Amino acid sequence: MTLQPLTPVNCAGLLQPGCSLLQLDGEVLLFGQKGWPKRTCPTGVFGVRLKQDDLKLRAICFSSDSCYIPPLRCPAVGRLDPYDGYAEGYLIHGGRTPNNEISSSLYMLTLDSRGCNRKVTLRCQEKELVGELPGARYGHTLSMVRSRGKSACVLFGGRSYMPSGERTTESWNSVVDCPPQVFLIDLEFGCCSAHTLPELSDGQSFHLALAREDCVYFLGGHSLASDSRPPQLFRLRVELLQGSPMLSCEALYTTMSISSAIVSRTGPAHRYIILGGYQSDSVKRMGCSSVVLDEKGIHIEPLEPPNWTADIRQSRTWFGGSLGEGTALIGVPTEGRSAQTDVHYFYQVSFKKEGEGEEVEATQGCSQESTDYEDSTPLEDSEELYFGREPHELEDSSDGEGDTYNEEDEEDESQTGYWIKCCLGCQVDPNTWEPYYSTELHRPAMILCSRGEGGHWVHAQCMELSETLLMKLSQGNRKYFCLEHGGLDPTSSLPANTF
């Protein structure tokens, strides 16, 4: 096992407590932070790339039929495997938005396509549910179970704001444990049912949920009512009978007191590594555990942890998620070091032995891979504008690269169209550029002129577009012509057939 420091390259501010890491079609995706808005789906989803000691992020495109998914912190994330009868993907429920609103929506995130240069395009659809619906919450878990040839989602735990009738001015933002109900969701029909089991008497949040066939194991968690992390382990069995399901629960013995831990799957069998998390509000859990699920039940064994650095041992909080194949990403705050420009240090933890990992199945964690650190600064939503796809991703692109993955293009952003002289009268100097529109952060807003071979990129500022007009042009995949190609007068109206 190894512990490798990572250097975030121009992306340290995008990795914050509450993020989720997903593995989809061989890609590692970061979800839940500031977004780079696209034409069709502004959201905070990034591709994660680790090269030597560098950590880099790339914005991910969404298909034109995708719905908007807000950046959600601490949602419930459950993996969909192809053998569940669905395309490989993820279910995302609940979570907190950067404005501290709590969501009750359920989204399905799947791969739409891979374009030129192996760039990923995702599809996001919101699932409509009927029946006994789970309320808005965060810090809960979502798992897939299979029984009698059918499958369903199991949602449990979490916390939310006080009921509206109990909220006062002083307690308006106070949160409480959600009732300890188990929700079963039929994805095919969108039917949802709530179940109360006597063994589950207390609410819990930021626990772990590991599923195998018709069983889900709930491990650890934090209870607000008692302000404790009791060493609890429950096995929930779900039988999807014809007509109505039957649920049973059994309390098992464990000594593990933990919340907000990271789970990484280590192989095609149900083998996991548990690391990180908290034993109490002021004590991190520095140990690690291996977990195996089989026909007999769950087996938990202590595992030798990495040689934690002084920064990790002395930090009050930490967060992270699974990178797949027995590896994880951990972030710890710099905690007031004035000479440190980044907010967090980042490390890659690997439990793979030498020679392992080449034929290992992707991680299938269903646990809440986040932190119950509540005091992180709310993020501003969608602070950078970037319109359309990059030139080499267009179907009519003439790069000659085809579908070949070109690492040089990925590393050198000067080739992607951001820092080009877009026209003869270009006014944007990449060395001295300052935000021109209120929605820009790191780079100038750009838009694709549809004229020319495959089109070409122009800076919206050079086209003398007002911010209102720029936002209107970003609403769809319509054609736009720059001023040199007889473009639209920014002072005119926008008739429906202009584009």
From TrEMBL:
Residues 417-489 form the Recombination activating protein 2 PHD domain. SUPFAM superfamilies: FYVE/PHD zinc finger, Galactose oxidase, central domain. Its main location: nucleus. Residues 371-384, 396-413 have a biased composition (Acidic residues). InterPro entries: Gal_Oxase/kelch_b-propeller, Kelch-typ_b-propeller, RAG2, RAG2_PHD, Znf_FYVE_PHD. It holds the Pfam family RAG2. It comes from the Eukaryota. Residues 386-395 have a biased composition (Basic and acidic residues). Residues 356-413 are annotated as: Disordered. Keywords: Chromatin regulator, DNA recombination, Metal-binding, Nucleus, Zinc, Zinc-finger. Zn(2+) binds at C422, C426, C449, H456, H459, C462, C482, H485. GO terms for biological process: chromatin organization; immunoglobulin V(D)J recombination; protein-DNA complex assembly; T cell differentiation; thymus development. Coiled coil: none annotated. GO terms for cellular component: DNA recombinase complex; endodeoxyribonuclease complex; nucleus. GO terms for molecular function: double-stranded DNA endonuclease activity; sequence-specific DNA binding; zinc ion binding. The keyword Signal does not apply. The keyword Zinc applies. It is found in: Nucleus. Core component of the RAG complex, a multiprotein complex that mediates the DNA cleavage phase during V(D)J recombination. V(D)J recombination assembles a diverse repertoire of immunoglobulin and T-cell receptor genes in developing B and T lymphocytes through rearrangement of different V (variable), in some cases D (diversity), and J (joining) gene segments. Belongs to the RAG2 family. Component of the RAG complex composed of core components rag1 and rag2. PANTHER family: V D J RECOMBINATION-ACTIVATING PROTEIN 2, V(D)J RECOMBINATION-ACTIVATING PROTEIN 2. This is V(D)J recombination-activating protein 2. It comes from Myripristis murdjan. The gene is RAG2.
